[in-house]
Design brief:
The chain is of the alpha+beta class and 336 residues long. The protein folds into two domains: 192 residues, Fructose-1,6-Bisphosphatase, subunit A, domain 1 (Fructose-1,6-Bisphosphatase, Chain A, domain 1, 2-Layer Sandwich); 126 residues, D-Maltodextrin-Binding Protein, domain 2 (3-Layer(aba) Sandwich). Strands 4-3-5-6-7-8-9-10 form an eight-stranded mixed sheet, sandwiched between helices. A five-stranded mixed sheet has the order 12-11-13-15-14, sandwiched between helices. The chain has a two-stranded antiparallel sheet with strand order 1-2. Helix 6 crosses helix 9. The longest helix is centred in the first third of the chain and has 22 residues. Bound molecules: 2,5-anhydro-1,6-di-O-phosphono-D-mannitol and magnesium ion.
């Protein structure tokens, strides 16, 4: 059977045509992200050969060792995006402060109206083992009026996102994105260098049989969460138990599997880290936007992720995300 070839760019443009007032800036921006991620994908594939694996010797703003590929992905994205002419500010997990886009890069568009947040290379502790890693991004409209973007532009609630997505560098490179009209997935065909549509309007199953959590932290969890995970592992067949455990330790990979097959991913707060490990702006918000567009749910155990008002660029949040009924059940236990 001949499959219909729809490139990422064609798909984005077709979506844009549904909005008569659209200027095309968001479409261009998404195309620039895809291009930067193709470059990163190439380097991820070649990393072992050209000594990009391993540590740089520096620490990032979270006190973690910076892997060389992290640094490369951050620089590639910043360089590709700051010249797009559509951005007024960039915030990256790998940079302490946000990066206001210089007026010279705004060119003919001093009103450049978007802000982008990204985690350049999520799951980087897995790089040396050749395990799937990914880039996560999130796009907002500016709230300031003109010139370089401000901190206020960068600290917007997740509900204000106009686009979000991720690229996963795995057995093949894929890109998944939403602009608020469903979630669409593309696979990079390396022979022609194009992302081609593989799944339009992805829907996550309402209920699953899979949970993903770093269970090594069990003794530090709240009693409610321990009870929930114990329940998932119990052998009550009538209750759709036991669940299977699947945990790559690479958020994009765990999230993508759950998006397609159903599942709940949890990175809770615990007695050591009250707000867990994951960042609201670079990880939780974009994935929450995607999962809701796919019919799923994302909360911090008490509150919808997209409703949280960020107070700083690197704020962390507990995260319960995935199939709606599973997340609702987890919330009940966690609140109890
Ligand atoms: P990173 O952004 O520094 O790569 O950290 C985030 C990663 C996620 O990909 C993953 O879900 C999580 O850290 C795994 O953490 P842990 O090793 O504590 O289970
Ligand atoms: Mg990350």
């Amino acid at each position: 059977m001949l499959r219909k070839f729809v490139t990422l760019y064609r798909h984005i443009i077709d979506e844009e045509r549904l909005y008569p007032d659209a200027t095309g800036q968001l479409s261009d921006l998404l195309a620039d992200i895809a291009l930067a991620c193709k470059v990163i994908s190439l380097e991820v594939n070649r990393a072992g050969l050209i000594d990009l694996m391993g540590l740089t010797g520096d620490e990032n703003v979270h006190g973690e060792q910076v892997k060389k590929l992290d640094e490369y992905a951050h620089t590639t994205l910043v360089r590709a995006m700051e010249v797009s002419g559509h951005l007024c500010a960039i915030a990256s997990e790998e940079s302490e402060d946000f990066i206001p886009v210089k007026e010279k890069f705004m060119g003919v568009r001093p009103m450049s109206k978007y802000i982008i947040h990204f985690d350049p290379l999520d799951g980087s502790s897995n790089i040396d083992a050749n395990i799937s890693i990914g880039t996560i991004f999130s796009v907002f409209k500016r709230v300031s009026s003109s010139g370089p973007g401000t901190l206020e532009d960068c600290l917007q609630q997740g509900t204000k996102q106009v686009a979000a997505g991720y690229v996963m560098y795995g057995s093949s490179t894929i890109m998944v994105y939403t602009t608020g009209r469903g979630v669409h997935g593309f696979t990079l065909d390396p022979t022609v260098g194009e992302f081609l549509l593989f799944h339009e309007n992805i829907k996550i199953p309402k209920r699953s049989k899979t949970y993903s959590i770093n269970e090594g932290n069990y003794t530090k969890w709240s009693e409610g969460l321990r009870n929930y995970v114990d329940d998932l592992k119990s052998d009550s067949k009538g209750k759709n138990r036991p669940y299977s455990a699947r945990y790559v330790g690479s958020l994009v990979a765990d999230f993508h599997r759950n998006l397609l097959y159903g599942g709940i991913f949890m990175y809770p707060g615990d007695s050591k880290n009250k707000n867990g490990k994951l960042r609201l702006l670079y990880e939780a918000n974009p994935l929450a936007f995607i999962v809701e567009q796919a019919g799923g749910r994302a909360t911090n155990g008490k509150e919808r992720i997209l409703d949280i008002v960020p107070l700083n660029l690197h704020q962390k949040t507990p995260l319960f995300i995935g199939s709606e009924e599973d997340v609702l059940e987890a919330e009940k236990y966690v609140k109890s």
